[in-house]
Amino acid sequence: MSFPDKAARTKCWNNRDEYWKCLEEHAPKHSSTSGEKIPTPCQSLRKSFEQSCPGQWVKHFDRKRTYDQFKEKMAQGYDPLEERTRAEKRAN
Hints:
Blueprint: H1 6-26, H2 43-52, H3 55-75, H4 80-91
């Protein structure tokens, strides 16, 4: 696939934004990089997003959203080591 022209990039970004908006509404903590099932109301938007963007872009945008979520949690005082310790205690 050649580099998308301006119209194709705009379509890709618009579909990404619509998909992310749906996730925020229906599953704000959803992470596309974790293999979680896509919420039913967002499945068609995900398909449009994947069809309108190059595969590498989809992967990049998925990672970006997951990273942005992580940064937001860190700004609110999230401690990944503390969460891991709690999870280990629950498992035992």
